[in-house]
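Practice problem 4.
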């Protein structure tokens, strides 16, 4: 069998229009100066015939790959039939189909009874809705978030985000959030859940009673730190004991990335509130959802509003994705298999260079120790046609977010490029001073 290899174009296209007209805030485009035109499955194509293997997947927005044929056809049929594109939050056929499918394929089989709230279409808005609701229901202000957490860029969610450079953009104080140490933050011998319990139980600790505890099971942007099931169960119990709501931000780790639809499945606790976005639409269309226990549904009509609540095109593709990938166990088995291959390959690279592997499922990376080294590796990968990015407090983790539909041969081909780039970067030390 011949393995398809990426074939990047060496020439950097004319980028003057971006330099002239697009805000300096653009980021990913700087590291990948090509003009992309089409994409299919795990491949992206630039406008000069170059082909790139996508190990970024829109930061886990394209878990089912680019333009999946089943999702694309469902959307084409819907548009051809003049299906509702925008309907505020009106009842539509597309919305009913999505809610029904969510109920029968996702919630019921997992024993979950959640109301679904369609927020504005970005992840950060789902987080805003979650923390607003927790504050409203509990009558408390403080949200406990964790070191290295990432929850979005609007002010409420940004206050829950740890990263200093992201926080710096706020321009106002980011308040009403306490950032407590995540699992493993103080090393393997300190149980940070016990520390949190101790502080919340001590009337003199200075930590107010929280409205919510907001947590990622795997920290997507914050360095692929993983929380153990035991730690998460403790956090769930702490929330319950102290009258706070547990919010799992599953925006990046959900939709199959860690192996199951929700990243917390089988761990023995049920979050009060869950946020989803990124891969929820399945095709990269903007779509976000906040799920919560029915008793918490204390919103008055329109109290959290938005023009684009419920993107009907995303309802169509999300429904198609749930039906195609989540009506039996086959997809989860495939993710588990790819996850093992990914783990083995990363462990081998780590062993060669005395590095560590982090993350779980198909959300894993390799800690190369410094952001400059990670940047050299991702740049070298891009030269070979592999799109890959970094994560972590110092951008020191090279993060593999391949589409979950990738086959073993192509995954291996991409990991060969990564392996070679890691070797080159670590054996021919990158000249930091030259940067
Ligand atoms: C991406 C992300 C968000 C924010 O989603 P946006 O669509 O970028 O607003 C929130 N939480 C987590 C865990 C994320 O990965």
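Answer key:
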């Amino acid at each position: 069998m011949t393995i398809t290899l990426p074939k990047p174009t060496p020439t950097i296209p004319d980028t003057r229009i971006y330099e002239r007209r697009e805000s300096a805030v653009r980021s990913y485009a700087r590291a990948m100066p090509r003009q992309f035109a089409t994409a299919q499955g795990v491949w992206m194509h630039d406008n000069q015939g170059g082909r790139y293997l996508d190990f970024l997947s829109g930061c886990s927005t394209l878990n089912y790959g680019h333009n999946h044929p089943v999702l694309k056809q469902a959307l084409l049929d819907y548009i051809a039939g003049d299906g509702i594109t925008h309907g505020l939050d009106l009842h539509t056929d597309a919305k009913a189909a999505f809610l029904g499918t969510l109920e029968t394929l996702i919630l019921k089989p997992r024993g979950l009874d959640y109301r679904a709230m369609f927020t504005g279409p970005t992840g950060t808005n789902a987080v805003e809705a979650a923390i607003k609701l927790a504050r409203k229901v509990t009558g408390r202000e403080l949200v406990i978030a964790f070191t290295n957490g990432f929850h979005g860029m609007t002010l409420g969610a940004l206050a829950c985000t740890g990263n200093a450079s992201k926080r710096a953009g706020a321009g106002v104080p980011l308040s009403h959030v306490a950032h407590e140490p995540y699992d493993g933050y103080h090393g393997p011998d300190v149980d940070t859940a016990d520390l949190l319990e101790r502080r919340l139980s001590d009337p003199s600790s200075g930590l107010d009673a929280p409205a919510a505890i907001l947590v990622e099971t795997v920290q997507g942007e914050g360095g692929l730190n993983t929380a153990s099931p035991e730690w998460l169960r403790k956090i769930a119990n702490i929330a319950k004991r102290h009258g706070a709501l547990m919010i799992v931000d599953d925006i990046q780790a959900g939709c199959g990335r860690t192996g199951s639809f929700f990243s917390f499945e089988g761990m023995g606790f049920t979050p009060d509130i869950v946020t989803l976005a990124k891969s929820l639409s399945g095709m990269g269309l903007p779509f976000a959802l906040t799920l919560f226990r029915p008793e918490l549904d204390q919103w008055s009509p329109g109290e959290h509003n938005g023009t684009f609540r419920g993107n009907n095109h995303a309802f169509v593709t999300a429904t198609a994705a749930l039906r195609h990938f989540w009506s039996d166990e086959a997809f989860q088995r495939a993710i588990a298999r790819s996850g093992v291959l990914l783990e083995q390959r990363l462990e081998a690279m780590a062993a060669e260079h005395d590095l560590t592997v982090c993350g779980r499922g198909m959300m894993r990376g390799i800690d190369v120790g410094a952001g400059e080294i990670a940047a050299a590796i991702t740049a070298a990968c891009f030269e070979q046609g592999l799109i890959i990015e970094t994560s972590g407090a110092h951008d020191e983790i090279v993060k593999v977010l391949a589409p979950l539909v990738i086959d073993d041969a192509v995954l291996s081909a991409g990991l060969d490029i990564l392996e070679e780039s890691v070797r080159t970067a670590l054996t021919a030390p990158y000249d930091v001073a030259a940067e």
